[in-house]
C-alpha cells in the first residue's frame, strides 16, 4: 500500500507514475514501477503501482516510463567563483595550484562572482542537483556584495541553497598563501559573517536559503578566527564548514605550526561536532576517523577534485563503517572543470575501489547514490526534510531518463544511473517546483550564461595580468 500524508484537497498536485523509484530511505525501499504524488511542496503519496484514484486538483500527470526517480542530489562542497578560472594550472598539486591562482582570484568582483555562480549552478541543476552549496571565502577589498550576488543567483535558478560564508585572515605576510589584499581582518570577517547569517539564514523546515560559518583552511585562517568563528556559529545556531586533511602538505603544515595534526588542531579550536562538516578529509588515520565518528563530524567527499590535484583517496568505506556522515561535493570548478555532481556518483565508486584495502567491495551503486542524496542532507543538517523520498518531506526529486541506448541494456536502474554514462534529466523538482525540463533549465538562459561566463573570465584574466 502507498504511504501517504494527510490529504489536503485545496493544494495543487503533480502525479508521477510508471517509474522505477529509489527512495534512499532508511530501508533503501525501491519500486520497480511506482508512483509519487507531490502536493504543493511536499511528497504526499509514494508507493508501488498506480497513484490513488480521485485525487483532487491534479494539475499535471507525468508518465515516467523508462525513468528512475531519486531524491534530488545534494552538493556539500563547492567554490562557485572558480567557474571563470577553469582550465588553469592543470598539472599542479594543491599548494602550487593555490599559489598559481590566488593572485587571479584576488581580483574578483561582484559581477564576476554572480556570473560564475550562474555557471556553477547551471551545471549542477542540469545534472540533478536540487540542493547546492557554495563555500565562498575570497572577499577582496572593494569587491561589492559577493554573498548577496551568490544567493541571488541561486534564488533565480530555483535551487535550494546553503552559503558557507568563508573568510581568510592569514595572508602571505603572516605565512599564509593568499595575497595580502585578498584577506579580511579578524574583526571584519566575523562581523560580516554574522551580518550575512542574520540577513539570509532561514531555519524553517522547507527553507530555500541557509548560511554556515566557514573560515577557509588552516593555511589561510588564524587560530583565533577558527575559535571565534565556532563561537559565533553556535551562538547563532548555524552550521560550520572548512577544509581539512586534504593533502600530506597540510598534515606537515599543521605539525610544524601547531604541533599536532589537522584533526587534533580542529578539535582544539572547537571544530569537531555534529554541527560541523569538513571538505575532503583525505589523509585521515584511524584515530582521526574515530574522532569524527565520536563527534558526528561530517565529511564532503570530492573524488574528482582529489584526483585532479593528486591529493589522494579518502577512506570513505572506513568512515561509513565507523558512522561518519559523508556526502559528495563537486569542489571548485578550477579543480573539477565539469562542475557536475551526478558524475561524482560514478567517480566516488570507481576511485574508492582503487583503495588497496577494500578494492571491489569499497562502494556499491546504492551506497554511491546514498552519498549523493541522503548523505549530503545529513552533512548539511537537513536529513529530516530532504535527501530521501518519504511522505512529508520536501518535494525535491529527479526523473532520470534511462531509456536511451546509453542505459537501456542495463537491467537494474540504480546500476544504470551510477555505473553508466551521465543520464539525461527529464525533470527536476525543487520544493515542488520544476526547474529542469528535458535537460534544459527553465529559469536560466544557458546560451546567455555561456556568453557572460566567457566574457567575465576574459575580463578577470585581463585585470589579473595588468
Give an overview in words.
With 466 residues, the chain is of the alpha/beta class. 35% of the residues lie in helices and 21% in strands. The termini are far apart.
Record keyword descriptors for this entry.
about 20% strand, globular, alpha/beta, 4-stranded parallel beta sheet
Please bin the fraction of helical residues: 25-40%
Overall average residue pLDDT: 96
Number of helices: 14
Q: Looking at the chains present, what oligomeric state does this protein adopt?
A: single chain
> Mind describing the biggest β-sheet?
10 strands, mixed
Q: Find the structural class using helix and strand composition.
A: alpha/beta
Number of strands: 18
Overall shape: it is globular
Low-pLDDT runs: none
Radius of gyration: 21 Å
| Termini separation | 67 Å
Strand proportion: 15-25%
Topology, pairings included?
Elements: E1 3-4, E2 13-22, E3 30-39, E4 42-48, E5 58-63, E6 67-71, E7 73-74, H1 94-105, H2 110-126, E8 129-136, H3 146-157, E9 160-167, H4 186-200, E10 209-215, H5 223-236, E11 240-244, H6 248-258, H7 262-268, E12 276-280, H8 286-295, E13 298-301, H9 303-308, H10 316-322, E14 326-328, H11 342-352, H12 365-379, E15 397-401, H13 413-419, E16 425-430, E17 433-437, E18 440-441, H14 446-465
Parallel strand pairs: 2-5, 2-6, 7-8, 8-9, 9-10, 11-12, 12-13, 13-14
Antiparallel strand pairs: 1-4, 2-3, 3-4, 6-15, 15-16, 16-17, 17-18
Helix pairs in contact: 2-3, 2-14, 4-5, 11-12, 12-13
